[in-house]
């Protein structure tokens, strides 16, 4: 029986991924801060086991990963947060909060999980298409996801020598509790269930980079190939920040 651990499983994409893998007969460890929400997730299948801890507390992460009920074949690092910078303000408090969850929290999890990695382990990390093109207000979030992408691509160079497979996931807009808070248009948005299907299919096909939805991410990736000044001009014409 295949086994998977998923962080950020109490809502959104992680919640749908846990349900998907359980429906396929996988044993699932669903991780999150809220044991109550994880209990709701576990009600979908007896194959899902909850593991509650705060990703931003290194001691909690280390403790949780030292008491796993089984060693996963697939490690899905999905947990993340998003806040925006308004009026061109480099708000260090916002940047610190976002970086703490998206970058430091991920590093705590990777550090605690790595002793369990063996040849054949698959490590998947959810980034964002926002990491590939500078967008208004997204300085903290986009920078954090750019750091995630670079970190995993760098680690992958050494991990591949150990037989460890890596995948980075670059979603566009996905309907989740995080995007529910957004006050701007989100073109080509898909459901969390659709996102989980894209991810699961990409991982099954051993894709090292998973982009979706195809049209939206292709547009942003193409724009990212332009010189920076051209990128800024195009983005300023296409995207209007809310007042």
Automatic annotation (TrEMBL):
Recorded superkingdom: Bacteria
A Pfam short name: adh_short
Keyword Membrane among record annotations: no
Alphabetical list of InterPro entries matching this protein: NAD(P)-bd_dom_sf (IPR036291), Sc_DH/Rdtase_CS (IPR020904), SDR_fam (IPR002347)
Keyword Manganese: no
A GO molecular-function annotation: oxidoreductase activity
GO CC terms of this entry: membrane
TM region positions: none
Keywords recorded for this protein, A-Z: Oxidoreductase
PANTHER family: DEHYDROGENASE/REDUCTASE SDR FAMILY MEMBER 7B, DEHYDROGENASE_REDUCTASE SDR FAMILY MEMBER 7B
Family the UniProt entry places it in: Belongs to the short-chain dehydrogenases/reductases (SDR) family.
Official protein name in the record: NADP-dependent 3-hydroxy acid dehydrogenase YdfG
Species annotation: Vibrio xiamenensis
């Amino acid at each position: 029986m295949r086994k998977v651990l998923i962080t950020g499983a109490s809502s959104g994409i992680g919640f749908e991924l846990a349900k998907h893998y359980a429906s396929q007969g996988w044993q699932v460890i669903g991780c999150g801060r809220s044991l109550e929400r994880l209990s709701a997730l576990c009600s979908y299948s007896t194959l899902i086991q909850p593991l509650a801890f705060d990703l931003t507390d290194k001691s909690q992460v280390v403790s949780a990963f030292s008491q796993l009920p089984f060693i996963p074949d697939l490690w899905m690092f999905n947990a993340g947060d998003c806040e925006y910078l308004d009026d061109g303000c480099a708000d260090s408090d916002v940047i610190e909060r976002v970086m703490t969850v998206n970058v430091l929290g991920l590093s705590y999890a990777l550090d605690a999980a790595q002793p369990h990695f063996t040849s054949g382990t698959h490590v998947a990390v959810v980034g964002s298409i926002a990491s590939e093109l500078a967008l208004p207000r997204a300085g903290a979030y986009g920078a954090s996801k750019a750091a995630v992408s670079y970190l995993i691509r760098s680690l992958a160079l050494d991990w591949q020598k150990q037989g460890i497979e890596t995948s980075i996931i670059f979603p566009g807009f996905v309907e989740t509790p995080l995007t529910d808070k957004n006050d701007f248009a989100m073109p080509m948005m898909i459901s969390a269930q659709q996102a989980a299907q894209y991810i699961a299919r990409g991982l099954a096909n051993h894709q090292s980079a998973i982009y979706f939805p195809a049209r939206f991410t292709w547009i942003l990736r193409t724009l990212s190939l332009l010189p920076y000044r051209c990128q800024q001009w195009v983005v300023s014409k296409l995207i209007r920040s809310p007042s």
